[in-house]
Specification:
The chain is of the alpha+beta class and about 120 residues long. The protein has helices at about 1-10, 20-25, 60-70; strands at about 15, 35-45, 50-55, 75-80, 85-95, 95-105, 115-119. It is built from 3 helices and 7 strands; from the N terminus they run αβαββαββββ. Strands 1-2-3-7-6-5-4 form a 7-stranded antiparallel sheet, covered by helices on one side. The N and C termini lie far apart (about 35 Å). Residues about 1-10 have low confidence and may be disordered.
């Protein structure tokens, strides 16, 4: 009985996330670029977090482009380590209520894919 309860409460519901789903969130536009391929994503409906990734030709150039767009949109940047950048911003997701949105970007060595985690 304990094991069954543990399994039921620990499972998270993940749905596939498409690029068109991410585009609906205007505040995430700085993190989507036009020259990307192989978009993949998932949305955890229990925690309301989502993740997506895509491949690019030049990771460094794309990160610079994202950084410029994020600055224009007043995102706050923090370099967490050599492979992870974090952007945060308070956004009015629900009317008259600000929510802190955090976008973590992870880059893996010798990988042309950029990984995004939104909380």
């Amino acid at each position: 009985m304990f094991f069954l309860s543990f399994v039921l409460f620990s499972c998270n519901e993940n749905l596939s996330l498409n690029e068109k789903d991410v585009i609906k969130y205007d505040y995430l536009k700085p993190f989507l670029i036009s020259n990307k391929t192989d978009f993949e994503g998932k949305h955890n409906i229990d925690t309301e977090d989502f993740e997506f990734s895509y491949e690019v030709v030049n990771t460094k150039r794309v990160l610079n482009e994202i950084d410029e767009k994020a600055k224009r949109e007043s995102w706050h940047k923090r370099n967490l380590n050599t492979n992870t950048i974090s952007y945060s911003k308070e956004i009015e997701i629900f009317k008259s209520e600000l929510s802190l949105v955090v976008v973590n970007i992870k880059i893996l060595e010798n990988d042309n894919r950029i990984y995004f985690e939104i909380k």
